[in-house]
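User: Hey, quick favor. My workstation is busy. Could you predict this chain's structure for me?
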Amino acid sequence: MSFLPSTHRPVTAALLAVTILFAARGARGEETLYEIRKSDAKVAVGAKGTTSVTIATKNGWHVNAEAPITLSLTAPTGITLSKAKLVRADLAASTKESARFDVAFEAAEAGVKIISAEARFVICQETACKPVKETLALNIEVGAAAPVPKVKAKAKAKKA
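Assistant: No problem, here it is.
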C-alpha cells in the first residue's frame, strides 16, 4: 500500500528502477578497478605442482604496498599444500600494479581437484583506498602416475 497519490506511483517506480540500475552498474564498476588472474595446473599423482594467483590493478589504482595482503587456502582430499596461508612475504612477484602468489602443492590421488582460496588486499588511488576480499577456485587436474619405463627396469637388473 502506497501513501503517495496515484499520480506519483509511476514516477516512484521509475525512480526505483533507475536506482537499481545505478546500483548494479556500481557493483560491476568495481570490476574495472582490478582483476584476478589464476593459472590452472596439471600434475601426475605423487608429483609436486604450482598454480598462481595474480592481482592486477586497473584504471589508476595500485596495490597498497603497506597494507596486509593474504591468500588463505583450503585443499581438497588428495592435495597437500606447502602452506595454507600466504602473506606479503610469500609473494612471488610484486609491483605497484600487481602482486602474484605461487601456490605449491603435492597431489596424492587422481581426479579434478579444486583448491578454495580467499584473497584479501587493499587497492588505492590518489584520494582513496579500498579493502577487497575475493573468493576463488584454483583448478588442479591430477592424472595417473606415470608408469616406470621397462627399459630402465631392465638396465637396473643388469647392473645388479
